[in-house]
Design goal:
Blueprint: E1 3-8, H1 11-27, E2 32-37, H2 39-43, E3 47-51, H3 58-62, H4 65-80, E4 84-90, H5 93-106, E5 110-113, H6 125-132, E6 135-138, H7 143-149, E7 154-156, H8 161-165, H9 171-178, E8 186-190, H10 195-215, E9 220-225, E10 240-242, H11 245-251, E11 254-258, H12 261-269, E12 273-277, H13 281-290, H14 298-303, E13 310-312, H15 318-325, H16 334-349, H17 355-367
Parallel strand pairs: 1-2, 1-4, 2-3, 4-5, 5-6, 6-7, 8-9, 8-11, 9-10, 11-12, 12-13
């Protein structure tokens, strides 16, 4: 039986791959679904070659090169077998760009979903993208004209977060699901979906929450975590809620978010937030030389301005972050009002729901 090979390398990609599985099976029931990913893709019926955990940072990636090379050899053997009808690469460009080149060499079409962020860094990848991608499905509105100008056949499909937002609860229901009281202030913590991010962020996330609790008696704190993350006993003094980021954001008054997709989730959920990020000193020094954009938070990148305050590397201190978050709790305060207006603007730029179905239709067409 021929197959569609879906390759995701981290928690967010695993989610997007799982959302693709149902419409793909409906459109092409004659094709098996195999690939790399995690528990969500497995539960959606994708046969996994391996459960693949993402890493971040220049130094951190080096430690994972042997595992990546072994997996790449396995994928190349799959491509050479002749049974792969289509490769769908989801994000994770350090690995998936190599897969795209191997698929091109094997004569297998490539649909790249959530493309490399050449607008931020590594603009030189554009040429390789044009040469190896049969089709690109992009999720940020400015990416389609940028990639098309570089020779990539790109289509804006809307952001997949909007598919999940259709079932987003109201505040009262979200608090019930999260086990929180209906009244009172709530702070949500999103320290990251990778073990390396948790190691670098968690202690200061807890410190921020403790500072705010000292000034705001009765403040409830919850931590949102990916299902793949394990914590040491006693490491977190707050309730941990897994795989329910929209519930947590809708329940919260304010959130502290690691830079990444969670910042867009905050925009969609209408939850004011601050954005932080910390990596190794060497990785940060390299990034400072390579990254070409003024913001790190996707929320701010889509807005084209700073809607949510950002604290990067040494600027990320509990004192500074707590001071930025405190005014956002004031229901009628100007800081909260301005941010809510900015979040609504960002949500409006993300397109309409149905991204997964659009990508599945593109995939089915490419197989024909």
């Amino acid at each position: 039986m021929r197959e569609i090979l879906i390759l995701a390398g981290e928690a967010s990609g695993d989610l997007h791959g799982a959302l693709l599985a149902e419409p793909l099976r409906r459109l092409r029931p004659d094709l098996a679904l195999t690939g790399t990913g995690g528990a969500r893709m497995r539960a959606a019926g994708v046969e996994l070659l391996t459960e693949h955990a993402g890493v971040v940072g220049f130094v951190e990636v080096i430690r994972h090169i042997p595992a990546h090379l072994r997996l790449l050899r396995q994928v190349k053997a799959r491509l050479a077998s002749g049974r792969v009808a289509l490769v769908i690469c989801i994000d994770y460009p350090g690995f998936n760009m190599r897969v795209a080149a191997a698929a091109k060499a094997a004569g297998v079409p490539v649909l790249y979903y959530i493309t490399p962020q050449v607008w931020a860094w590594k603009a030189g990848r554009m040429r390789a993208m044009a040469e190896t991608f049969t089709k690109a499905a992009v999720i940020l509105p400015f990416e389609e004209p940028l990639l098309r100008a570089g020779g990539v056949d790109a289509t804006f499909v809307g952001h997949p977060l909007l598919d999940r937002a259709a079932a987003m609860p109201d505040r009262a229901e979200a608090r019930r699901r999260c086990g929180l009281p209906e009244s009172g202030e709530v702070l949500a913590l999103f320290p990251g979906s990778r073990a390396e991010e948790i190691r670098r962020h968690l202690a200061d996330f807890v410190a921020v929450a403790r500072r705010l609790q000292a000034d705001r008696p009765g403040l409830q704190v919850v931590l949102s975590a990916a299902p793949t993350i394990a914590f040491a006993s006693g490491e977190i003094p707050f309730p941990v809620i897994r795989s329910a980021s929209f519930d947590v954001l809708r329940a919260a008054d304010v959130a502290l978010c690691k830079s990444g997709t969670t910042t867009l989730e905050a925009a969609v959920a209408g939850c004011p937030c601050a954005i932080v990020y910390r990596t190794s000193p060497i990785s940060y020094a390299i990034a400072r030389r390579l990254v070409r954009i003024p913001h790190i938070g996707l929320l701010n990148i889509v807005a084209g301005r700073e809607v949510a305050p950002e604290f990067v590397q040494d600027a990320f201190t509990p004192e500074a972050v707590a001071a930025a978050l405190a005014p956002l709790f004031e229901a009628e305060g100007p800081a909260r009002r301005r941010m809510l207006e900015g979040l609504a603007e960002v949500r409006g730029r993300l397109g309409t729901a149905g991204a997964s179905a659009r990508v599945a239709a593109m995939a089915a067409e490419l197989v024909r």
